[in-house]
Structures are given as structure tokens and as C-alpha cells.
User: Fold this.
Amino acid sequence: MPRGKGKKALYEKYEKCEAVQTALRKAPRALSEKYAEKHKCEHDRVDYKTVRSLAKRMVGVIEHLAKSICSMEEKFTAAKENVEFITKRATDLIDERDEKIKQLEERLRKEVRH
Assistant:
């Protein structure tokens, strides 16, 4: 199926989205024009205009799903970065407090001895 002018393929449109790229690598190539030319309708029950219309709708659904997946991936990446920052900051604060507790314990031991 030829694409309209200026319309990018999904793998180009979502090249930074790892989930979409993985799914597209595994996707069958059954909707390509070469496949359609080789495999004619056997039973004359469905005309090619209907098949083409269904294929276009399927591509539209796939595009919407790809957009949603990419958006979710970006949100999860941002959330992951926030969690990592908070965890690192909390670890640093705990380490600082542990060090302060050790210093106070040493000071207390020195004063108790004297």
C-alpha cells in the first residue's frame, strides 16, 4: 500500500521508542503490495477494495497503538529517572546521618571516659 506524501513509516516515526521498534521487527510483512500481488483472493467472497479498506484501518489502529506505547514508554522513563534521583538522594541523606551518628557516638564515648 503506497503511503501519502509526507507520511512516515512507523519505524521512522517512532525510531526512539524501543517497544515499537521491537514490535515492528517481529511484525509480519503480509500487508505489503508484493504479498497482495502474489496471493489472490481464492473464493471471490471478499473484493480487494474491502480488503484494502480493512488493511488501512488496521494500519491506523497500529499507528494509534504505537503512539500510545511510545507515550507510555516516555512517561515510564521519566518516572524511572525520578525514582532513581529520589533513591540516590535518600541514600546520600542516610549515609550523612549514619556518619553524624558515628561522630556523636565517638564524642559520647570520649566524654564518658573522662
In short: The radius of gyration is 29 Å. The chain has a mean pLDDT of 80. Residues 44 and 51 are 12 Å apart (CA to CA).
